[in-house]
Sequence to fold (304 residues):
Amino acid sequence: MNKPLIFEALQEMLSVKVLTDVSMRKYTTWRIGGNADFLVFPASTDELSVLLIYLHENEIPWVVIGNGSNILVGDKGFHGVVIKMGEQFATTNWRDNQVDIDAGVLLPTLALEAAERSLSGLEFAAGIPGSMGGAVRMNAGAYGDTIGQYVTQIEVVTYTGSKQILTASDISFAYRNSSLFDVEALVSRVTLSLPRGSRDESLSKIRELLQLRSRNQPLEYPSCGSVFRNPPNDHAGRLIEMANLRGMQIGGAAVSKKHGNFIINIGGARAKDVVALIEEVQQRVYEYSGVRLETEVKMIGEFV
Ligand SMILES: Cc1cc2nc3c(=O)[nH]c(=O)nc-3n(C[C@H](O)[C@H](O)[C@H](O)COP(=O)(O)OP(=O)(O)OC[C@H]3O[C@@H](n4cnc5c(N)ncnc54)[C@H](O)[C@@H]3O)c2cc1C
Fold:
């Protein structure tokens, strides 16, 4: 890979400064990860399109991230281009009970704004520190609600640079999963349709759910939220706690004592600590209950 040449080309096509050899720690809520060769912040769908065409034609590896709240970046980093959908994609356009949301808008901001406008449904999202793009791709959800149930339309830019509109019937959502993982495209904007509700009720539900989170989740430590998917009819956290794994530690990573499905960075954790702990938890839970836990978190880059 000719890094100086790629750098020059990226600088040329993007209006926001391209970062090189940048630690991914700052860009993930786990505060873990090696360096990315390039970190870029496209500022429009046109820029995204030009960027994706260039990466495709030159066969340069790339990955997209939102707020980095459901990813583990390997200690050896990512050799290629990390596309961050962040504050350059942060517009919301409210039209009656419909809202068009750029991929970089954060769920807590959106949930509060919806409540203020007496639109209900998004209260569950107030404590999920993800971006709109990451949330639809993961079909983020909590307390029985998911983002997918409110989606009417998604604007994507395909890996070969063309803009497309997908309607709700083009996309299927499942538990922490969506067919967007099969579409070779990156999410740039999402349209939701929200039921009318009461501002005061929504705001008080948000307060209640945030209090519940701070009672049950170790929010004082860096994490990626739940590490494992819940197996059918059970909770990964319950199985981990039953196997007596709370507090288990490898290097700087530990199973939270407050919530079994959280692996927290107690200081200086490396991706290899987290991976080793994940494997140990999977093994012990399997020995204890016969259930093989699968990870919800997405692994990015090189680990060894
Ligand atoms: C304290 C805490 C609590 C959490 N609680 C919950 C919860 O209750 N429920 C829940 O579902 N999750 C929860 N999470 C996990 C996480 O916040 C969600 O999965 C969130 O939706 C991820 O969004 P993100 O922008 O951070 O995505 P990232 O972590 O940046 O990326 C996640 C995946 O989406 C892809 N992606 C990101 N942006 C785009 C885009 N624009 N287009 C296409 N693909 C994209 C990435 O490539 C990656 O595969 C929690 C996390 C933390 C740290």
